[in-house]
């Protein structure tokens, strides 16, 4: 069943590459007006043009999602460009992998605090919206311990928990809050493609164990994001949906 987002106004934080890009394009293809933000000017503008190619309002803003003031300024500009906000997607990650101050700081500033800043900034607009929804991107790393990337796993677990807290807080405002937990997703320029090119044993181990014989695609995550933001999920809130092709089952 095709989802129709005609007239809906969507913000995708971290929307220029990978899952964010696919999500922005999927919303635009379904009729939504879309704003995206990221740090990289060239990829941001390229994706904005792709969104505009669907004939929708396409807004983009350069934004460091580790900077709360920058997030608030961007959300304000996006809401003005779109004429409001119905749906907020929090997709960015600081990819804090090392178990040191740098790794933890990157994770908390982007994976957690960007969600806090963006949602709070968008809240006055979401309160005025029809069937408002927030969807954040966690990871299957949230569900298990990690020697290789302890900060990343911990902050993604915090996203799952914070999603539940937000859902409780915003239900009286008729705003649903959910999350997705992707497994290993491969796309051009992404972490898993780089590992593949480097001949990483981690990439090969994940690929070999996957019973479908491949890694996931960003479009497959975007499809679930759209479902959670749609009226089809109107009675779903506080949930995190795993999108991993069964990766957790065999790892």
List the helices and strands and how they pair.
Elements: E1 9-13, H1 18-29, E2 33-38, H2 41-52, E3 58-62, H3 68-82, E4 87-90, H4 101-126, E5 132-137, H5 150-170, E6 175-182, H6 191-198, H7 201-209, H8 218-229, E7 240-243, H9 247-250
Parallel strand pairs: 1-2, 1-4, 2-3, 4-5, 5-6, 6-7
Quick take:
The protein has 251 residues and is α/β, with parallel strands linked by helices. The chain has helices at 18-29, 41-52, 68-82, 101-126, 150-170, 191-198, 201-209, 218-229, 247-250; strands at residues 9-13, 33-38, 58-62, 87-90, 132-137, 175-182, 240-243. The chain is built from 9 helices and 7 strands, in the order βαβαβαβαβαβαααβα.
Descriptive report:
With 251 residues, the chain is α/β, with parallel strands linked by helices. The protein has one domain: Rossmann fold, CATH 3.40.50.720. The chain is 47% helix and 15% strand. Strand 1 (9-13), helix 1 and strand 2 (33-38) form a beta-alpha-beta unit. The model has no long low-confidence stretch (mean pLDDT 95).
Features:
seven-stranded parallel sheet, 15% strand, globular, Rossmann fold, alpha/beta, 47% helix, 251 residues
The DSSP helix count reads: 9
What is the CATH class designation? Alpha Beta
The name of the CATH architecture is: 3-Layer(aba) Sandwich
Q: Spell out the CATH superfamily.
A: NAD(P)-binding Rossmann-like Domain
Cα separation of the termini: 32 Å
Strand/helix succession: EHEHEHEHEHEHHHEH
Biggest sheet strand line-up: 3-2-1-4-5-6-7
């Amino acid at each position: 069943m095709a989802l129709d987002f005609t007239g809906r106004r969507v913000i995708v934080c971290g929307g220029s590459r990978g899952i964010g890009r696919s999500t922005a394009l999927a919303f635009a293809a379904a009729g939504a007006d879309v704003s995206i933000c990221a740090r990289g000017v060239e990829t941001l503008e390229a994706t904005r043009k792709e969104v505009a190619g669907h004939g929708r309002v396409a807004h983009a803003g350069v934004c460091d999602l580790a900077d709360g003031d920058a997030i608030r300024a961007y959300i304000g500009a996006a809401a003005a460009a779109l004429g409001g906000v119905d749906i907020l997607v929090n997709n960015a990650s600081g990819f804090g992998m090392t178990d040191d101050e740098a790794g933890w700081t990157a994770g908390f500033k982007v994976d957690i605090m960007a969600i806090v800043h963006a949602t709070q900034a968008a809240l006055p607009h979401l309160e005025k919206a029809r069937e408002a929804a927030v969807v954040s991107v966690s990871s299957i790393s949230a569900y298990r311990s990690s020697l290789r990337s302890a900060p990343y796993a911990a902050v993604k677990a915090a996203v799952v928990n914070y999603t539940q807290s937000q859902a409780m807080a915003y239900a009286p405002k008729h705003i649903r809050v959910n999350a997705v937990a992707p497994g290993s997703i491969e796309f051009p320029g992404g972490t898993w493609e780089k590992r593949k090119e480097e001949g990483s044993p981690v990439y090969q181990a994940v690929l070999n164990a996957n019973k479908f014989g491949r890694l996931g695609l960003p479009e497959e995550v975007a499809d679930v994001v759209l479902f959670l933001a749609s009226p089809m999920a109107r009675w779903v809130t506080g949930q995190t949906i795993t999108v991993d092709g069964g990766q957790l089952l065999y790892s």
